[in-house]
Model the fold of this input.
Amino acid sequence: MEHVTLNNGVQMPILGFGVYQIPAEQTEQAVSEALAAGYRLLDTAAAYGNEEAVGRAIKASGIPREELFVTTKLWVQDAPAQENTRRAFDTSLRKLGLDYLDLYLMHQPFGDVYGQWRAMEAVNREGLAKAIGVANFYPDRLLDLAFNNEVTPAVNQIETHPFFQRTADQDLMHEHGVQHQSWGGFAEGRNDLFTHPVLSGIGEAHGKSVAQVVLRWLIQRGVVAIPKSVNPDRMAQNIDVFDFQLTDDQMAAIAALDTGATLFFDHHDPEMVAWLSKRRLDG
Done:
């Protein structure tokens, strides 16, 4: 497994396993199979409702804690955000059954972002979160947070796939020492990704699937990827991407697929901002 080095020296696997949209009752088995396939980076969130299942799989695996890299995420908190953030962090840690997190992300750029971040800085100082970062932050919000706080986010997890490539965002993150991480790397199959002629053609040239081509493309860009699957065969296929290299021409062909627009939701859309800001989690 290849790793990236975060801005505080923490080593993070460049490829991991995500559990977004995996029902809680299926998550323990899925994570157990992912760990058996060789994944060591696990990505969950309070909002996914499956942290406890992830924790059970970790415990049952018998894998030494130091060999794992576990990420979860903080949902939008009501005021007082600092107190609520610490409570939410403690709840996630308890559900996961862990003594510390490798990475704790602010899930959305809304609410009392500064209050939330100060609480996250505190758990980072205490060693309870080895690294802290954000998700879904566009460049303006990311730089505002970085310039006006002690700790620069180590990671920004954003929608990134062949149809929304975020190259300018990545350049800015690189300039300021923030690691780019992808969510939605397969675009959930939209725009016929899995049968797209460009991606299929590249896959045929290497004897690889479209999914493997997309993951290889992300890795060669230095983007951390967290593909999700509940199929053990696909899990094994998705991690089998370190034995081939895309050519410059193939990277350029994929670059030409970029539309520059989200396929899911726009964090600048007032209706989406209102929905995310008002959504609350139980427990």
